[in-house]
Amino acid sequence: MSENKKCNCDNCLHKLCVERVPIFSGLNSEELSKVATLIVKKQYEKGELIIMEESYLENLIIIDKGKVKVFRYTIEGKEQILYIFDHGDFFGEKNLLNNQQSTYNVEALETTYICMINKNDFQNLLINYPKIGIKIIEELCSRMDKIESSVQNMGTKNIEWRINSLLLDFAERYGKKHPNGVIVELPLSREGIANYIGTARETVSRKLSVLQDEGVIDMIGNKQILIRDIDALMN
Fold it and tell me: Does the keyword field hold Transcription regulation (predicted)?
């Protein structure tokens, strides 16, 4: 594991991360600057663990740049991906309000910069700015809805529907306009996609090949997909 680099957000070449985080959207410029002074930044390389399951956290962690996967292992030892987070997303909130162990692992999918706010500092923020607490509750409720929907779809929707829905989600989050459609930089490998939607890697590869044969997508290596007919994925 490489050594994590620390820096103060005020000295970052990037825009202040707090300006891009939805939970801080109700703050004015002066308040955002106060939040920024509380932040410590770290860098993680692809494959490094940011959080280990059953560890205790002392920080709220915000992604400034990069992507991470949130996962845990099933009883059978198979990786189960719960979320893909990118800039503006946060995690580690459970241990900020009570001394609770993490129920998941978090791993960098690429070079990732995170911003951390200490537990005590964050609790003071909630006292001074209650709107932040409301935003966090809203986001956590949204995550619960997504998990419930995902669990339900695992049991009731077929593989084609799951893959199509995931491609639409990736297109919305990571897609860029292209003369022939939408080009998507995939955050996950074929195996990662399989772990996300609850199927086998071979099944994912086979279904993607069918979509390519039908002219719906073009696979560009292992990391990119050109979606030629996004409407076909919605049907």
Answer: yes
